[in-house]
Amino acid sequence: MAKKQGAAGEGTPETSVEALTIEEAEAELKRLAEEIAGHDKRYYEDDAPAIADADYDALRQRNLAIEARFPELKRSDSPSEKVGARPSGRFAKVRHSVPMLSLDNAFYDEDVHEFVARIGRFLGFKDGRALALLAEPKIDGLSASLRYENGVFVRGATRGDGTEGEDVTANLRTVEDIPEKLGKGAPEVIEIRGEVYMSHADFAALNARMAEEGDRQFANPRNGAAGSLRQLDPSVTASRPLRFFAYGWGETTKLPSDTQSGAMEAFRDWGLPTNPFMKLCADVEEALAHYREIEAERARLGYDIDGVVYKVNELALQERLGFVSRSPRWAIAHKFPAEKATTVLEDIEIQVGRTGALTPVAKLAPVTVGGVVVQNATLHNEDYIKGIGRDGEEIRGGKDIRIGDTVTIQRAGDVIPQVLDVDLARRPKGAKPYVFPQKCPICGSDAVREHDPKTGRTDAVRRCTGGLICDAQAMERLKHFVSRDAFDIEGLGSKQVEAFWRDGLIRHPSDIFTLAERDKGSLKKLKDREGWGETSVANLFAAIDERRDIALARFIYGLGIRHVGETNARRLARHYGTAEPFIEGAKAAADQAGAAWQELNDIDGIGPVVAEAVTQFFAEEHNLEEIEKLLKQVTPREAEKVASSSPVAGKTVVFTGSLEKMTRDEAKAQAERLGAKVSGSVSGKTDLVVAGPGAGSKLKKAAELGVEVIDEEAWLKLASG
């Protein structure tokens, strides 16, 4: 069985996820969110990825692992809540009737075993029950959805952000593998999901032809497939050698089988191409054996794959398992191993984030790892640079990292890029230990490591104490406010925020919405600035005005409250409904006692760490003043109610005691799918308590408050109605 990084006998490049402090985890999640967002844009919008898919997916793997251990730290811009990227605007938009989600990743055999064990726990399987899995190669191409009505191809779309893609119907019609009509037995409506790709031979021939014609060549087959499919002129796509493999479905009026493997057989009968290495495996060991067979054949396939996908074969189990965040619980991608390289650490740069964290970044001599040029790597914190772990233990054998060192890096697994070791034999003479700054490099304020008297631990992250006087923190907060998942103001990106900040045009979020009015009375008009003109200024002001009406979740997310990521912002918005009760509730909970504090804590997914961060934010007078100014300029919309005809939609449900026909996790997921709010405690706002054997204090509390109580059987009947 493969070993994970940090196992005995290996160099441990940094603190493992299991050993991270809460401060280290927060800093690492920030780095991962920023890096993944950059790669998303290059991959999905520009069709010019800077790293291999395996490396990109591994970034997400560490992000998910940290969030699983520290759910209260999930950021508003967490990659775990995103799929792909927004449609580019070059094509008409298509809203997927069933979202096109991504997959969780596994890098080691034990990850796959844990995936199967997790399914067993969720479904309440008894020990020893085998789980049949359909295993197939993970094609490195561009995901597409093909809609057939009465067996005829009517529309095709890219995945986009998972919810909305681009209409590339005309282009997909030119792909020879995609049938215009499905064979006998196809349902009235079915959306076929699959991957558009390019073979190695076709890719080489295409690049040779483009070189002869003086055109820009593609970097790799995936890049070639994506660029070819997203051509505005379908005749260009028709001239490109694109291929297609079907692997699943979206909306359908009827499925041809009750298993994944059976559905794939029907696809083949209808004339859709499926991968010949797709295999039904009786259990996890057979699936892992097939993974190794595919890996051995990888170089001879003639097209790029970056792993093997395992899917629960029984569709009834898939339905019970459902989805979490951006991925299904019933499938996982087992990635191929990482590659390593050696390079020189040329410098260490300190970056200051919006929470004041000082993050060291390694500036590397460019080196190619797995076909991708790497130049930067995080160094996490000052202890990591010194070769010290979380509890004072040695990492990397106690070797510190110095400017000029020759280091071994890896771009997969827990950290990407990841410094595995330092070659002391090649350390330059005179290389000195790195001295971490005690002052903020931006504002000069003291940079300190806070000590938590409750835990006795010292924060691994050094933070600037400058707060609002620190330009870096203030600018980062503004960048967060206008970011894609917050107010998403077109034309006001990081560079514009920095420029407006330097010139004193924007200091606080509310200043953005008074910019147009102030510009009217200014002698130096915005249109006269370098890089601007009347049209671009008009577009910016229009984009700002469009965001005066904003979803409540985006408004909360944009405030930049520590530990309140995009997911927690949605939870808060959904619970409170509108801005006023949210703000008043947070203010009322400031004493961290009483009904308001309990209500905040009881929101499913919100715990004491997040609740404390929310109340601390609203305890700051300058934050309240800024929110007051902001609310004079913008109107947060009431949170959307879950569209459901279910009898439990909109109700608050509490589960207590043992459940016999499903696990607690499955029951909770079922309730949320039906539009209910799940709470961890019984209060006056509870609508329904589902009680099983062993129910205790919650059942008693429900009786005291007169809350309706039902058993598991009644719940299942209610949920099915």
Structural account:
The protein is α+β, with helices and mostly antiparallel strands and 721 residues long. It folds into 5 domains: 17-82 and 338-426, OB fold (Dihydrolipoamide Acetyltransferase, E2P) (Beta Barrel); 93-335, 2-Layer Sandwich (D-amino Acid Aminotransferase, Chain A, domain 1); 470-547, 5' to 3' exonuclease, C-terminal subdomain (DNA polymerase, domain 1), CATH 1.10.150; 551-637, DNA polymerase, domain 1, CATH 1.10.150; 652-720, Rossmann fold (3-Layer(aba) Sandwich). The strands form 9 sheets. A 5-stranded mixed sheet has the order 2-13-10-3-9, with helices on both faces. A 5-stranded antiparallel sheet has the order 16-15-14-17-18. Strand 27, helix 24 (697-705) and strand 28 (708-710) form a beta-alpha-beta unit. It starts with 21 loop residues before the first helix and ends with a helix. Residues 1-14 have low confidence and may be disordered.
| Percent of sequence in beta strands | 15-25%
Task: Give me the Rg, rounded.
Answer: 27 Å
Sheet/helix structural class: alpha+beta
Using the coordinates shown, work out and report the CATH topology of the largest domain.
D-amino Acid Aminotransferase, Chain A, domain 1
Distance between the termini: 46 Å
The rough form would be described as globular
Secondary structure elements and pairings:
Blueprint: H1 22-45, H2 53-69, E1 93-95, E2 104-106, H3 109-123, E3 133-139, E4 142-149, E5 152-158, E6 164-166, H4 169-172, E7 189-197, H5 200-212, H6 221-229, H7 234-238, E8 243-252, H8 260-269, E9 279-281, H9 284-297, E10 305-312, H10 315-321, E11 323-324, E12 327-328, E13 331-335, E14 340-352, E15 358-369, E16 372-378, H11 382-386, E17 406-412, E18 415-422, E19 447-448, E20 451-452, E21 457-458, E22 463-464, H12 471-481, H13 494-502, H14 509-512, H15 515-520, H16 534-546, E23 549-551, H17 552-558, H18 566-576, H19 579-588, H20 594-602, H21 608-619, H22 621-631, E24 635-637, E25 652-656, H23 664-673, E26 677-678, E27 688-691, H24 697-705, E28 708-710, H25 712-720
Parallel strand pairs: 2-13, 23-24, 25-26, 25-27, 27-28
Antiparallel strand pairs: 1-6, 3-9, 3-10, 4-5, 4-7, 7-8, 10-13, 11-12, 14-15, 14-17, 15-16, 17-18, 19-22, 20-21
